[in-house]
Amino acid sequence: GRKWTSHSLVLQALPNESGQMRIGFTVTKKTEASAVKRNRIKRRLRAAAADILPLYAAPGHDYVLIGRSQAATRPYDALCG
Description:
The structure is a single chain. The protein is α+β, with helices and mostly antiparallel strands. It is built from 2 helices and 4 strands. It has helices at residues 35-56, 76-80; strands spanning 2-5, 9-15, 22-26, 61-67. It has a 4-stranded mixed beta sheet with strand order 1-2-4-3. The two termini are 22 Å apart. The mean pLDDT is 94.
């Protein structure tokens, strides 16, 4: 698989046999203790993935976006870029 890191997220990609693109999101308690803040980060990651992955993602791969604490406060354009 491949891995890409930034200040606000980690993106992991791995080919799969299904031929379909699958996406997963995770934010751990170590990142944010509050469930409300973790859910906010996941919502922002889902929105960014919906805008970016259809343009650049390869079909037949699994993608996992791991949120970091800066994803909650970073501007949306910076999160997508």
